[in-house]
Prior knowledge:
The protein has a 6-stranded parallel β-sheet with strand order 2-1-3-4-5-6, with helices on both faces. Strand 11, helix 8 and strand 12 (296-299) form a beta-alpha-beta unit. The chain folds into 2 domains: 2-184 and 361-371, CDP-glycerol glycerophosphotransferase, N-terminal domain (Rossmann fold), CATH 3.40.50; 190-356, Rossmann fold, CATH 3.40.50. Helix 1 (2-24) packs parallel to helix 3. By secondary structure, the protein is of the alpha/beta class. It is built from 13 helices and 13 strands.
Amino acid sequence: MFQIRQYLKMFLQNVLLPLIYRWFSRGPVQKGLVLFADAHHEELPFSMQRMYEAVSELEAAGQCHTELFISDFGRMPFGKMFRYLLCFMKRYAVAEYVFICDYYLPVASCRKRPETRVVQLWHSCGLMKKIAYDTGEDIPKNYRGNMFGNYTYLTLSAEVCVPVHARALQLAKSHIHATGVSRTDYYFDPAWNEKCRKQFFEQHPQARGKKIALWAPTFRGNAATPRLEGQQQMMEAAKELAPDWYVILKAHPHVDAHGRVSNCEIPTEELLAVADVLITDYSSVLFDYLLYEKPAVLFAPDLQEYEDGRGFYLDYESIPFELARTRQELAEAVRGSGIWYAKHKKEIQDFREHYVGACDGRATERILSLIGLGAKGMVL
């Protein structure tokens, strides 16, 4: 069934969507029309929210008009998805700006008109596991086309990320800019962080007075058949750390969709302000968390297998946080994470600057300036 659905998607991608686009692009671009599109969420994803807030302020000032195309394609019946794509392509054909934050095949279904600017906000910071054309797991083997060829701008967290993404996405470096990642502006906002802390303790009052450890691993496999490693060891370590520590188990949404593992409903990004220590494996959440300048622990029980399979862009064992492979090592590393951080603070600061140095709370502002959205003369 999965394969049949994939072939139907390819038929849409290669035949029907280009026809629809060409028909509706005969008219002029609608100045100030801004689309936000995503195929992996039912609600506006976190990676878009800060930019959407900024663009909404421009809309309130009469400088643009926004429309949302946010749906999880994996949960949509084929007929509903076709109607959704028809509506999107009609508006894409006349839009001036399109914001996305993940792989989004409809944008790549045909050569876009040059007046339309596609802005890829991206959904991760730094460089960790291999992506796109550098791995065999991200892009379907039967996919034909240039998935990233219509990107006008790709925004990243640091200059070191530019050449890697240029190769992995087969995109010219001139389209890639280390402006910082829009969503990370939240992490520099005291009011937003305080709201996150208040929300957490309202929902988890039993955590008051304890140190908080956040386990936020990535998943193995793909979205259709995700796997989670280390859960049993993590739960055993949590028992060992009690009662001094309160451990949040926060699995990737793909994992929870196939049987809930997480013991907290709050999104991972809103838990970073609360955590005293982050425990993760190969997830890019580590780079977001670096901006808080707090201790972390790497828990990677399948490191060699993962490296031999998907692979990394960096020497994983060179990351300046303690690496644990067993339950015993994990519990000890969490207890000693504060001492480790103090001892290796300079290395951690250098690592942060290298991979997320462009994230300083003003990324959204820089992106809007780069793309020319909000400039004078954009009144509808």
